[in-house]
Amino acid sequence: MPRRPNWQTTCEGFVCSICWTNFSATDSAMKPRVAPQCGHSFCLGCLEAIARTSRTQPPTTRCPSCRRETNILPKNFVINYAMLDVINSMNEAKERQRPAKTKKGEGILVQCFENQNHEAELYCTSCKEAYCEKCYMKSHEKSRLMQQHRAVKMADKPEVIPMCSEHPHREAIFHCPVASCSHYEKVGCGECGKLYHRDHPCSKILNRIKANSDMMMECHKLLQEKKETLTSHQEDIIGSIKSFGLSDTISHHEQLITEHFGPNEDESALRKYRIFVLYEKKQLECQKKDIAFQIRQIEILDKKLLKKWLQKVNLHEAELIIEARKNLRKRIIKTKVYFKLEEYNFRPDMSARPSRPVEVAASTSGR
């Protein structure tokens, strides 16, 4: 059965007590429906699944909470609007608590010096500022002196050398990696090297900046590859979820079950199959949310990497590289792992739960 959510999840929203999915004011299938015989509320999908197991004519729907029955079809159950009002109020309260998002500069890696709503494309080596191409031409064509300025692409912007931690008026020339050093993770000038870092395996600051810059681009490339794989999985899983909502495939399987048992139709086999369909679909939807979350985390991290790499400031720091490597260590399977309902290995007698093709292949190869 679907995994029951924790206490906090159930208190943040009303859930169907059969599939443990949150009721929704926008999704018609997840709007709470009131059982007329008792007043309990469930989602339409679960109620229809219960009704299909009925052996009576006309079919009856038995409440899973109190076992009372009704011959009214689930699609005709009244929607619990009182519960929807509470859900809408809770959603509105959550929206009010969220910090307001500003559109100014949103999604921009490096802002244009003249207009913060523009993405910087060029860096003026004389002005020491970043511009979009339009603003650069507009601001530099007015002055004959500024017309002599030289602009380079943002990717070719010179790295900014950090200043010494102890002597802010001097440029740093080295970085100390020794964990036990009292000036650990600090950069310093020549004088600091003699005073605090004697015999330490310090690296030249320019070499460290170059190494970190190259590593950032390598992490960016690997993060993009991981995102592409996850996006492919996301497309597969969406197709799989849709297949579990196709009545033709489900009806065909149920017909095969009925034909297999003949006059002595086994109701438990049909019940097993319907539970399997509901459970598998809910599991796929949970995995879809997890993949979407992973993709979003990669996008946020990759944006931080690119922004720092383009700004060329504090490239001697390695925190983002460490964070990217940590994300990349979480490997994902690159082969197909999500299948449509019709691709499952299905037995009409339901003596075994329908299995994915990879599960059968794995069990066969292990013999």
TrEMBL record:
Keywords assigned by UniProt, alphabetized: Metal-binding, Zinc, Zinc-finger
Annotated RING-type domain residues: 16-67
InterPro entries in UniProt: TRIM45/56/19-like, Znf_B-box, Znf_RING, Znf_RING/FYVE/PHD, Znf_RING_CS
SMART domains the record matches: RING
This protein's GO CC annotations: nucleoplasm
Presence of the UniProt keyword ATP-binding in the record: no
An MF annotation (GO) of this entry: ubiquitin protein ligase activity
Source organism, top-level taxon: Eukaryota
Keyword set includes Zinc-finger: yes
Database matches in SUPFAM superfamilies: RING/U-box
Annotated Pfam families: zf-RING_2 (PF13639)
Record-annotated B box-type domain positions: 112-154
Protein name: RING-type domain-containing protein
Species of provenance: Caenorhabditis brenneri
Taxonomic lineage: Eukaryota, Metazoa, Ecdysozoa, Nematoda, Chromadorea
